[in-house]
Every structure is written in C-alpha cells, then in structure tokens.
Amino acid sequence: MRVAIVGATGAVGHELLKVLEGSSLRFDELLLFASPRSAGSTLMFRNQPLTVQATPDGAIDADVILASAGGSISKALAPAWVAGGAVVIDNSSAFRYDPEVPLVVPEVNGDAALTHRGIIANPNCTTAIAVVAVAPIHRQYGVKRMIVSTYQATSGAGAKGMDELLEQTRVELDGGQAQASVFAHPIPFNVIPHIDAFQDNGYTKEEMKVAWETRKIIGDDSLQISCTAVRIPTLRTHSEAITLELERPANPQAVRDLLAASAGVEVRDDPAGKLYPMPLTASGKYDVEVGRIRESLVFPGGIDLFVSGDQLLKGAALNAVQIAEYLQQKGALKARQRA
Ligand code: A2P
Q: Rounded to whole angstroms, how far apart are CA atoms 38 and 85?
C-alpha cells in the first residue's frame, strides 16, 4: 500500500505527516510531493528523512493520494490521479459540490465514502468542526435553523497566514505599521469579517461553504443555515458560536450527555470552573471541544453552544486520514499489484 501527500510542505501537509505517524492506516510507503520549489528538500517521517518531489503533471503511482496543495492543483491533476488508479482524498473545495463526489466526515456520514468514484472530498474546516457537534443534535432533536458566527485562526490561510500574524505583530510591537498581504487588512490586534470572496448575496464564499457543506454532509437540504465568518489573530484552531432551532425541544443537560457519548467530541462545559472550549486547549487535540451549552433565549427549546476545533486536524489532516482509515476498515482500500 502506497500513500502520497501532495502539498506535503504546507500547513496541512505538515499535520498530515504527524497524523499518519500515529494512524492505524496500514501502508508500506509514503511519497511526498509539493511545488518544484521544494523538490529535493526532506521531511521527517517516523524518524526517517523522506525526499520531497516536484508534483508531476500526470498520474502518481500511489493507492491513496491525500491532496492539500489548493483547489487549482486538485482540479487540474485529480482526474489523472484517479485514471492512474488512486483514490484521492481531496482537501480543497474543487469537487465538494459535485453530486458524484462524497463529502465526508467519518463520524457523521462515513458510509458515503464507500460510494466514491475515485475522489472523496474533505469538507471546509469550519464545516467539519461544526458538524461533529451538530450532527448528533440533529439526529436526536432535528435541527431546523442554524446560525453560526466563527472565530477563525490565521492558519486557515495556510502557513503564510501564520507567518503574517507573527511577523506583523512584531512590526506593530516595534512601533511600525503592519502591511496586509495574505489578509484583506492587518491582522494583529484586529478581527476581519471577510474570509474568501464576497458573493452576490452579500455573504462570503466561506460563509456559503458552511451552509452548502453542512447540508450535504448531514444529508438534509431543508436545513436553514446562516453564517458570519471572521478571521481573528490566533495561530490555529477555529471557534464557532452556534445557535440551533430544533424540531423537538432539548434541554442543556440532555445535550451535554448526548455529546459526551458522541464520537469526536469532548464536552468542556463547566462555566463556574472556567471550563469552556478555547483555541488554547483545543489546539493539537483530535476531538472538537464543545461547551457553553445553554437553552436559547430566542428559540424556545433550542440550544446555544460554543465549539473550538483544531482546523488543521479535524478540519483537514485528521479528517482526511480518518477517511482513509475508514475505507481500509471497510475493506474498500486495495493496494495495486506492482512489479
Ligand atoms: P511549496 O511549499 O513547495 O510551495 P499552504 O496551504 O500552507 O500554503 O501549503 C500549500 C502546499 O501546496 C505546499 O506544500 C506547496 O508547496 C504546495 N503547492 C503550491 N503550489 C504548488 C504547485 N504548483 N504544485 C504542487 N504543489 C504546490
């Protein structure tokens, strides 16, 4: 079994290497690809240096390709990877809305992965984190409407996003004036309600991704969703304030118990003990932290909650590896015969 990472040198690629180190996925060989700029550099995997190769224009001789080099690379090359016999687990948005491409969070709709025709899409990070908490509530109580406000880390824009926060913070502390490059405005000591491009309806693409993708993963087109996505000056982990209107009334303790028994969730909810989800505690964690669970003041029987999830992990690398593990557990991942 041969696994390849395309975009191995990036923020998500770095996490893919770490997650694969501890993964139950059985494979014999790992191939690393990035842009020609990184060709010949090495990255450590299980105490061995592996050489990064320039991504070829055509097929890659691997059984599973974890793609994390952006939408244009995936769009251009994934068809050739599939034609070459690989299963592609794609982190970009290139194929997420294709009805023939499953969009998968294993805790929520793992079975959808088994229907793939070569490509499986990994959701947008904000969506992946939200659905881990919301799907169990939807199954039990039926979510009618969902209102989300996000607090998104700079690593959502890749390694260069984190670099911009660190460098520009230093500039500001030294009395200089930060110049935005990755973000629309200086990010140090600021919050920016603008992630991805504005659409005709006034929402950004990031906000619409949360609506489209949550419906597809949960499998309910009637779900009404509105999102405001905001970039904040943290390095990693996205947080989200979520309000749910429910078909059947819930009480906070029942929701706490339900989520405590749900896969991929850590309930962290003791306000008196100052215990709630935060990037500080959720970073590096596989589970999504959920807390501040309370009855909505607006929707009787509805629920307000707060989540923090490491978006480089559950929102990207971890979820991608979990999809591969799921396929292997189900006997749906086959190594090709090689000479
Ligand atoms: P490189 O480091 O050589 O530029 P991030 O999301 O953190 O910005 O990372 C993007 C990833 O995608 C990096 O591994 C980057 O490699 C890779 N990448 C960027 N452009 C290309 C390209 N044209 N072909 C293959 N990989 C690319």
A: 26
Active site residue 125: yes
> What are the residue boundaries of the structural domains of the chain, listed by start?
2-122+317-329, 127-311
Residue with tokens 């992946």: 128
pLDDT at residue 130, as a whole number: 98
ipTM for the predicted complex comes to 0.98
Q: Which residues of the chain have pLDDT under 70?
A: none
The three-class DSSP label of residue 158 is: coil
In ligand 1, the atom with minimum distance to the C-alpha of 13 is 14
152 is in an annotated binding site: yes
Ligand 1 in reach of 159 Cβ (< 6 A): yes
Gap between the Cα atoms of 244 and 332, Å rounded: 36
Q: Is the CB of 288 under 6 A from ligand 1?
A: no
Q: Is 41 in the pocket of ligand 1 (CB under 6 A)?
A: no
245 C-alpha to center of ligand 1: Å?
41
- DSSP, residue by residue, 31-96: EEEE-GGGTT-EEEETTEEEEEEEPPSS--S-SEEEE-S-HHHHHHHHHHHHHTT-EEEE-SSTTT
CB neighbours of residue 332 within 10 Å? 13
Homologous superfamily, domain 2-122+317-329: NAD(P)-binding Rossmann-like Domain (3.40.50.720)
State residue 52's pLDDT score. 98
For residue 266, give the amino acid letter: E
- The one catalytic residue in 125, 138, 194, 227 is 125
Written as six digits, the tokens of 314 are 């559950």
Instruction: Tell me if 156 is assigned to a ligand binding site.
Output: yes
pLDDT at 31: 98
d(CA 94, CA 156): 17
CATH class of 127-311: alpha beta
Q: Is 170 annotated as a binding residue?
A: no
pLDDT value for 337: 82
